[in-house]
Amino acid sequence: MPPYTIVYFAVRGRCEAMRMLLADQGHSWKEEVVTMDKWLQSPLKASCLYGQLPKFLDGDLTLYQSNAILRHLGRSLGLYGKNPREAALVDMVNDGVEELRSKYVTLIYTNYETGKDDYVKALPSYLKPFDTLLSQNKGGQAFIVGDQISFADYNLLDLLLIHQVLASGCLDAFPLLSAYVARLSARPKLKAFLESPEHVNLPINGNGKQ
Fold first, then answer.
1. How many C-beta neighbours within 10 Å does residue 138 have?
2. Exposed (0-12), middle (13-18) or buried (19+): which is 9, by Cβ within 10 Å?
3. Could you give the 3-state DSSP secondary structure of residue 38?
4. Which of 84, 125, 146, 210 is at a distance of 20 to 30 A from 168, taking alpha carbons?
């Protein structure tokens, strides 16, 4: 039995970065898919620490909060930078990803129809910090921090991929970010996952908007 279990809804949502990480690192995991009926009618929600999913099991360790899960995987799989300096930068990047993801989630679930145009107009200013960070690391030809992949790379990659669905040309003004997405997506195990039915057939969000 795989040591990892992801308990989540049938969407990519806040779990796709951890799925990409596990797939790319060659680890298997079990999915426990929760329907909305089960979520609303069973004791599952009340049993979750913060009353929300995802829930992540690593052996006898149970974790909630998607970024805590990513950091745990980063520490346990050596994906947290090579030293304290790099770890601090990885944390900074991941916090930036979370900030933009929160803006995206608010758009998708609260004001997609009326807010999308303004969001897309503002998107270059949201993406610029990641472009700047990338350019400062080996001329943008490597990872977001250092010379080895980190959990923040997977989280950033997921964020950029879903924004390319939202606004297909959003990276046109950022050739380094565009090349970064292409480069990471071409990693053999990650490429196989991104082309798999498990990824392709799963909606990005729970309300059909993307």
1. 11
2. buried
3. helix
4. 146
